[in-house]
Amino acid sequence: MHQTPHGCALRRGRVSEAGRIYLVTTVTRGRIPLFADFALSRAAIGELRRCDHLGRCATLAFMLMPDHLHWLLQLAGDDLPRVVGLFKANSAKAIDRQRGTQREHVWQPGFHDHSLRMEEDLAATARYIIANPLRAGLVRRIGDYPHWDAIWL
């Protein structure tokens, strides 16, 4: 996975651990609002679900905004950069298939992650990411926004 120099600096010295919970944020190339398109959103969400199905992680919550993704996940066997890189590559292919394009750049290189500490409230973190469309003024009720899910522990 290609990363920006700044992204590499953020990664230096970090270790991803199986079983640890991470909040990952990644944005579309040029912040283009690709996911304002329902079909493209569903293609990306299908790839999130595939990561779970293949045992790479367990998705606890996600919010797919028009131009970025917030993903709360518990890491399984792979390391975090690999899981995120595979998701981004596979979702880009799925989006290309949906649009009838080939090898279009969907995601910006790199991603931001935050490893949740034991004292952090998982439910509060999930509620915060799920409330994104409300804070952005996209909807008045979260039930009106279609591109999210949360599994409460």
Report what the structure shows:
This protein has 153 residues and is an alpha+beta fold. It is 37% helix and 20% strand. The chain contains 5 helices and 5 strands. Strands 4-1-3-2-5 form a 5-stranded antiparallel β-sheet, with helices on both faces. Strand 2 (57-64) and strand 3 form a beta hairpin. The chain is globular, with a radius of gyration of 15 Å.
Q: Which keywords apply here?
A:
153 residues, alpha+beta, five-stranded antiparallel sheet, 5 helices
SSE ordering: HEHEEHEHHE
Shape: globular
Let me know the average pLDDT. Answer: 89
Write down the Rg.
15 Å
Total count of strands: 5
Catalogue the unreliable spans. 1-10
Indicate the structural class. Answer: alpha+beta
The share of residues in extended strands comes to 15-25%
| End-to-end separation | 31 Å
Query: How many helical elements?
Result: 5
Q: In what order do the strands lie side by side in the largest sheet?
A: 4-1-3-2-5
Helix content: 25-40%
The biggest beta sheet, please?
5 strands, antiparallel
